[in-house]
């Protein structure tokens, strides 16, 4: 088994007595992986990244990079480089000197340095801008310089702290794909911090969801989306419905409104659970529709219909709670109006009964 | 966001404000201009115009005491500025870039005191201390005194500049393998340089301007230009003083323009 | 890289993290050390020494004698002569501060509300030029203007409004106002310029009139500038020496001059020390109060 690129063991960061920013994180990031740390602001993901970079030191625990213990090594002695959220380009240096900085510091000089700098600038598609100063560049261009400046040093791991936050939507989406391409071309491990779940889902090989300093779940985009292990993860990623209920037997849940449905359960009978169901997994039908045996059914009344262009959202009152249903806007679909009685159906595999 | 169409001062109020503005400028500049004008007046009485002449300037240039005082002023200013700029910059860095260290709070307070204390009080403090230590009063004590108050001024200016600088830049430098010293030399210093120069120029001006502290700690021997002129004014008022004043005015204006030009150029690069 | 030996094979623990923190703190202290030592030696200690000397006895030459400790000098502060001088100085400082504020605020406001940044910058530079020029020269200018044949005197005589103002109280007022106006204008400008003007727009949107918006929004928001400017004017005015000396002559003795003569002709160092200590105590109390009330910087 190959050594993990980044390995965190019981990593904790406390500020003073009261604030625990990062709480006992265990994580292994594989070589060549695009790994994202995802969570709301204040969840500790940036602090974790900074500890890998050496900009902060953990209070407890061990951080290893390719098996080498980092301890309290300062950042200039670690084989990682960082792309900062504000890019942190040196304003008094040209693009060339910015990108060359790490090489200059490590003694790479002359024609080799020039070659590698131009290589990096070409990689991020900024050829010809070498003599510009950061002030003369757009946000997207500055971002690329920051990337080139980090990659040129051939770090073992590249750390990125919400690098696309300041860009507008279209540019951000384009850059996401570009970053993914570059990562695959260069082949090094990327550790990416973001609060944008869209970003994490589209770019990452694996995602680590964090909240209040704890790592809640680690897995591929599909694992996290389809099988969240907690309410928080289910809620944070995508849209989810939460329906309270109680487990009757393995695989059966009685909901608060009396209906009994089948779902994926993990705990025993009698446990109080929250059923999670994503809006797109529900279908909306007219009353009286019959369903095959493998579907589960809920009755309800439409409260509101919202038109999103590419989809229709229905808010349906099933008795104890209002459930969101998403229907793709295909030609020929029936549009229900507020006040209509409807029947919702879903496949049990799409429903997850969570205890936390 | 600066003043816009919706918030701009309108009509009568604006006209009154503008009038007040110009009156204030008049108030500020007319006395200075009169001094300059009458430095060319061929009449022993400073208030009366007696025809154009350069006599007073010639007299001034022949005044050995004045020239000695000028030389002393320059020496004192240059040395005290150099020392206080280095010390003040270091103090600013220690305060802005290091979160916690022993005695930081008292130091912060101590640094503010020379700025807000009236110079009479500071002059008294230094005189008594020098007397107690049996230091010989002279150029050395003047220089030591000027450094004492200039460190704070330089620190304040540099500190403001440091606070405005993105700390992530220094983190980035470290991330890119720069040692602490290289980070300072290649990233921090170039970026705070306008502040350092600004602080140095402030120190220079304050040193060249100082009357009270210098007059108390200078002792019988050496004297500086402003103290010498102060003595002249008390004894007798002649247009020669106007001539000296004009030269001092032109010199300080040159200093201001040089500093502004320098700062403008540094800003452009940043 | 041999210097990494101490870092390797080490799992972090709270002690190790604290060691890293301590190292950083030590470096901070070392950076500040030269100026720290200098200021302690040439400022903090003299401060204490002055206070101590105020309890000393006075020798024939006026120097302090470090025995026969007494409260004579401090009792001298209750003397009616000192009281009148102190009161006059206080009064002068207060009036000067208020005058600077009354004239300086509209002036600063005027500059801050000019629309183009270039205009504002030019106006600021025009204010800075007198500010940077020598204080002595600026005071001297008024000396010549207010003298017997000075232009201002002649203007006053011609219009019958005033006579020779030199060596009278008004002369000192004029000189102090002239000298310290820029000290008031600059912080005021900085505070007014920083105001988020969209707040004024919001006030207007909520039916405030021009003067309402000014009184309820602009004025309170510019308070830090008012406070800073007032402190920068008040304290030096209190200890003014050059201006009262040149423009007020022997007739107007203020605190600054009175203190300086103790080290000159009056030959009473302990008394001078006591007066200085009194001023220092008042100032320190005021500053502590200012910082406690929430202000972080000047």
Task: Describe this protein with a few key phrases.
heterotrimer; B: 270 residues; mainly alpha; MetI-like fold; 2 domains; C: 298 residues; two-stranded antiparallel ribbon; 13 helices; 2 strands; 72% helix
Structure notes:
- The complex is a heterotrimer of chains A (356), B (270) and C (298).
- Helix content of chain A is 24%, strand content 34%.
- With 356 residues, chain A is α+β, with helices and mostly antiparallel strands.
- Chain A folds into 2 domains: 228 residues, Rossmann fold, CATH 3.40.50; 116 residues, OB fold (Dihydrolipoamide Acetyltransferase, E2P).
- Chain B has 2 domains: 45 residues, no CATH class; 214 residues, Orthogonal Bundle (MetI-like fold).
- Chain B contains 11 helices and no strands.
- In chain B, helix 1 packs across helix 11, helix 6 crosses helix 8 and helix 7 runs antiparallel to helix 8.
- The longest helix of chain B is centred in the first third of the chain and has 34 residues.
- The mean pLDDT of chain B is 88.
- Chain C has 298 residues and is mainly alpha-helical.
- In chain C, helix 3 runs antiparallel to helix 10, helix 5 packs across helix 7 and helix 12 packs across helix 13.
- The chains are: A alpha+beta (356), B mainly alpha (270), C mainly alpha (298).
- The interface between A and C is medium-sized, with 15 and 14 residues.
């Amino acid at each position: 088994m190959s050594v993990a690129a980044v390995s965190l063991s019981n990593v904790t960061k406390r500020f003073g007595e009261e604030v625990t920013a990062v709480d006992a994180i265990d994580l292994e990031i594989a070589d060549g992986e695009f790994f994202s740390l995802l969570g709301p602001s204040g969840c500790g993901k940036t602090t974790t990244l900074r500890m890998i970079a050496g900009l902060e030191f953990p209070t407890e625990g061990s951080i290893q990079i390719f098996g080498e213990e980092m301890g309290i090594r300062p950042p200039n002695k670690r084989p990682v480089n960082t792309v900062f959220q504000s890019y942190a380009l040196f304003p008094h240096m040209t693009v060339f000197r910015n990108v060359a900085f790490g090489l200059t510091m490590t003694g790479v000089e002359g024609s080799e340095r020039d070659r590698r700098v131009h290589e990096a600038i070409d990689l991020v598609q900024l050829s010809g801008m070498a003599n510009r100063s950061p002030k003369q560049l757009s946000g997207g261009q500055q971002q690329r310089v920051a990337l080139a400046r980090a990659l040129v040093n051939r770090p073992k791991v590249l750390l990125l702290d919400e690098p696309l936050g300041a860009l507008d939507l279209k540019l951000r989406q384009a850059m996401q794909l570009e970053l993914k391409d570059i990562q695959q071309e260069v082949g090094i491990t990327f550790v990416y911090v973001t609060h944008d779940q869209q970003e994490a889902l589209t770019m990452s090989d694996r995602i680590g969801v964090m909240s209040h300093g704890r790592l809640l779940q680690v897995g591929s985009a599909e694992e996290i989306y389809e099988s969240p292990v907690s309410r928080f993860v289910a809620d944070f990623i995508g849209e989810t419905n939460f329906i309270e209920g109680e487990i009757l037997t393995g695989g059966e849940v009685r909901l608060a409104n009396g209906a009994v449905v089948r779902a994926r359960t993990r705990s025993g009978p009698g446990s109080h659970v929250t059923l999670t169901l994503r809006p797109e997994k529900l279908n909306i039908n007219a009353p009286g529709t019959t369903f095959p045996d493998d579907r589960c059914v809920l009755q309800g009344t439409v409260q509101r219909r919202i038109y999103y262009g590419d989809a229709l959202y229905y808010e349906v009152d099933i008795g104890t709670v209002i459930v969101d249903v998403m229907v793709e806007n295909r030609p020929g679909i029936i549009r229900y109006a507020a006040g209509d009685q409807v029947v919702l159906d879903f496949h049990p595999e799409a429903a997850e009964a969570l205890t936390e | 966001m600066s003043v816009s169409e919706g918030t701009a001062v309108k009509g009568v109020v604006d006209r009154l404000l503008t009038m007040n503005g110009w009156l204030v400028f008049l108030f500020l500049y007319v006395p200075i201009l009169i001094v300059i004008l009458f430095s060319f007046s061929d009449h022993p009485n400073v208030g009366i115009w007696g025809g154009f002449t350069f006599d007073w300037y010639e007299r001034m240039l022949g005044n050995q005491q004045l020239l000695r005082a000028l030389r002393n002023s320059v020496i004192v200013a240059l040395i005290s500025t150099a020392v206080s700029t280095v010390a003040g910059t270091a103090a600013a860095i220690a305060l802005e870039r290091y979160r916690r260290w022993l005695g930081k709070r008292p130091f912060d307070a101590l640094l503010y005191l020379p700025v807000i204390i009236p110079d009479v009080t500071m002059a008294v403090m230094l005189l008594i201390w020098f007397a107690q230590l049996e230091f010989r009063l002279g150029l050395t004590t003047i220089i030591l005194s000027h450094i004492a108050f200039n460190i704070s001024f330089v620190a304040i200016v540099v500190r403001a500049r440091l606070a405005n600088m993105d700390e992530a830049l220094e983190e980035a430098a470290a991330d890119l393998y720069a040692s602490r010293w290289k980070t300072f030399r290649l990233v921090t210093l170039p970026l705070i340089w306008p502040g350092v120069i600004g602080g140095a120029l402030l120190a220079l001006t304050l040193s060249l301007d100082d009357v009270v502290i210098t007059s108390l700690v200078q002792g019988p021997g050496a004297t500086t230009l402003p103290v010498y002129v102060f003595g002249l004014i008390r004894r007798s008022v002649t247009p020669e003083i106007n001539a000296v004043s004009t030269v001092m005015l032109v010199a300080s204006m040159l200093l201001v323009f040089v500093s502004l030009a320098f700062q403008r150029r540094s800003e452009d690069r940043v | 890289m041999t210097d990494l030996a101490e870092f390797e094979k080490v799992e972090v623990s709270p002690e190790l993290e604290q060691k890293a923190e301590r190292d950083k703190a030590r470096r901070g202290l070392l950076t500040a050390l030269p100026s720290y030592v200098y200021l302690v030696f040439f400022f903090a200690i003299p401060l204490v020494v002055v206070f101590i000397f105020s309890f000393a006895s006075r020798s024939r030459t006026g120097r302090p004698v470090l025995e026969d400790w007494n409260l004579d000098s401090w009792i001298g502060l209750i003397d009616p002569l000192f009281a009148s001088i102190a009161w006059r100085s206080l009064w002068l400082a207060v009036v000067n501060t208020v005058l600077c504020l009354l004239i300086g605020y509209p002036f600063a406001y005027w500059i801050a509300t000019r629309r183009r940044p270039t205009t504002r910058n030019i106006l600021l530079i025009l204010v800075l030029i007198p500010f940077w020029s020598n204080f002595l020269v600026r005071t001297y200018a008024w000396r010549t203007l207010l003298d017997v044949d000075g232009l201002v005197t002649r203007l006053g005589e011609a219009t019958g409004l005033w006579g020779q103002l030199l060596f009278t109280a008004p002369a000192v007022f004029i000189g102090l106002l002239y000298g310290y106006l820029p000290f008031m204008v600059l912080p005021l400008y900085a505070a007014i310029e920083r105001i988020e003007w969209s707040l004024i727009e919001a006030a207007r949107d909520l039916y405030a009139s021009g003067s309402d918006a000014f009184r309820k929004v602009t004025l309170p928001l510019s308070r830090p500038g008012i406070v800073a400017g007032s402190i920068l004017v008040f304290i030096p005015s209190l200890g003014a020496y050059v201006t009262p000396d040149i423009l007020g002559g022997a007739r107007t003795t203020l605190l600054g001059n009175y203190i300086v003569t103790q080290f000159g002709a009056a030959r009473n160092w302990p008394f001078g020390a006591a007066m200085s200590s009194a001023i220092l105590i008042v100032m320190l109390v005021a500053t502590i109060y200012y910082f406690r009330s929430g202000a972080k910087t000047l």
